[in-house]
Amino acid sequence: MSRAVTNLQIDSTRLWDSIHETAKFGATPKGGVRRLTLSQEDKQVRDWFRKACEGAGLEVHVDTLGSMFAVRKGRDMSKLPVGLGSHLDTQPTGGKFDGILGTLGALEVIRTLNDAGIETDAPLCIVNWTNEEGSRFAPAMMASAAYVGDFTVDDILSRKDAEGTTVGAALDGIGYRGETKVGTQKFSGFVELHIEQGPILEAENKTIGVVDHGQGVFWYDGKVTGFESHAGSTPMPLRRDALLALSEFALTLEQIAIKLGPNAVATIGEAVIANPSRNVIPGEIAFTIDCRSANADTLDALDASLRAAAGEISKKRRVEIAIDQVWRKPPTHFDPKLVDAVERAAGTLGYAHRRITSGAGHDACNLNTIMPAAMVFVPCKDGISHNELEDATQSDCAAGTNVLLHTVLSLAGVAS
Amino acid sequence: MSRAVTNLQIDSTRLWDSIHETAKFGATPKGGVRRLTLSQEDKQVRDWFRKACEGAGLEVHVDTLGSMFAVRKGRDMSKLPVGLGSHLDTQPTGGKFDGILGTLGALEVIRTLNDAGIETDAPLCIVNWTNEEGSRFAPAMMASAAYVGDFTVDDILSRKDAEGTTVGAALDGIGYRGETKVGTQKFSGFVELHIEQGPILEAENKTIGVVDHGQGVFWYDGKVTGFESHAGSTPMPLRRDALLALSEFALTLEQIAIKLGPNAVATIGEAVIANPSRNVIPGEIAFTIDCRSANADTLDALDASLRAAAGEISKKRRVEIAIDQVWRKPPTHFDPKLVDAVERAAGTLGYAHRRITSGAGHDACNLNTIMPAAMVFVPCKDGISHNELEDATQSDCAAGTNVLLHTVLSLAGVAS
Prior knowledge:
homodimer, Aminopeptidase, Alpha-Beta Plaits, 9-stranded mixed β-sheet, 5-stranded antiparallel β-sheet, elongated, Bact_exopeptidase_dim_dom (chains A, B), hydrolase activity, acting on carbon-nitrogen (but not peptide) bonds, in linear amidines (chains A, B), zinc (chains A, B), Amidase_Cbmase (chains A, B)
């Protein structure tokens, strides 16, 4: 590799400007972003991204689940492209970096190669995966899951949001139901840059996390069925209060996760009382559970313990607690060769780095089941993510993008 | 009083038919009624009620908060009328009897007097109070509260439902903003027939509850503010989970009420997570608290204990818990002479009866602060109310209406 290629650095200011320019699509008053997948705000950022990719000379195509692929030709078009990218959708009160850094970082890699006049041997292909977040439609990472064959396309197209709109209707609503058959855009491997979404890199003063594992995830839909009755005239001992049963379950689940920790977490993110009224004892509550661990045995122990707790509490409080597992994603072991490539790039560039487990799920975890995949993490402020206060420094974002650049170059190959 | 008057009985079948005829306005699949105040379903039952009252020769007028007054002339029109009635609105998943029995029972009293050709000395006036339930607009019993001067009419008119519709707009929406100035239709006293909404009469095999006390009620709006963060990458010890804090508060509140019992209850009826997502740790939850006791000191102890608990939990879990008291209704001591009149009527009619405290709030509790008021309870099945399964027997409903009839006759006076 020539010295010019070895020393190649991305344009930190251009990357930073892109991140802040797109943050206006769904900007919230507190400085975050609300850009639910396939919403009008998502359409705006997709249109921006398509135009930017075309401006960088890439050929953009869209698959039938709305995932966007932007291809840069290589010297040898018989080779499969190296994939890089992430997602542009956000949580309901999300931040400016989650997913966005990885997608716009990939765009910055291409722009940097264009400016330097560098052609890679294999082609490159940026991806913006549809619905990574999973907050409008379940499951999260649905497009990459369908890509690797975990779900059929028809199944995903029929999933509904809280208003009853299907994925198919939402795709048509913003004009992003593309023509590429899901799974047909192949890659030799996939590299995803992302903020850590946790506190470790910042605490240890590391610039780069070389992600070698991803946590497995179990998702559940739950429902407590007690009995609605009058808040004034029903004595405390006669109540079958669904909220109190859920409260006891939530605190027990917290203890279970702490006991199985430090490598285990459990969260009740949604809880909705049916027909709530301030003078009626709650009779029914629907809720969700999210359990994660990088260790498969720990996940199974979480599953068994939470089911046992539900059984005990339902008996004690004379309510029903239904627990339905709706998603089961095993832990990820990223491709050792690609992980090494990321680590080498970080080392060559001189960034302080460490191996790390991803607490969050990512599209790269899905892709790793059918191709070599790896991830690059950069620190985020106070470990905060899925929050409008999510923040990262320009310098760390640039460092991560440089690692992405050099990892991709090592995979795609550059004529010396 | 003549023998004909002494033996007078209402028409049990006609009463039962009225109850079931009006139950179609807002009927739910499970056999209950959803008739939120000032909704289209409420307009339907109001129109039916107005027509029925006019059919019984009553003169109907409506006050500026929508409460309906149906006056039957007395022999001596210089006397204030005796008031009787209740409300026709229901909880979101309410039953066929709560409020309805007292209003249609009052109509049945008038119809019975008409059939028997009995004229009372004082006039009689049936009332259908607006928004007794409080589930669409807070507070509950708002119209009778404004009637007795606890709130200004403008204040009540500006109260909003969850969609932001004001009471004033809702009144106009169904054409029930009347012209009578609130508080100007005076009464010498008020008697309200109601289902018990609790388990005591049924358990003790009594037909009539002679209500001598009503529980005081404290209502609060609460908010837990923790911190939204990623459900996968935030270790358990670093979380500031608003739902876990509320769970701990809810279970502590239950223990407080049990400890201060048996004459104390506390309920969290509403709890809404802001921006819920299954993979985001809840950062903010709005909730309500309803505390009741017939003893003022117990209510004060509940108040002090729940505030202390909120303080401790917020400190321990590094969240804020705001507790705002939005309504404070002292316990009711019903007028001893009217309570005696109810007891005498029950005794004369030969019904098994006992003195009882009302667990629920009622318009009669508000009225008792400025005039003599009393209540008649009848049993309801399994003590269940504010539920679609709410039920009462035809025979008990008739017995309660007979007690209402004879109490009203004793207050209004009948020429012997």
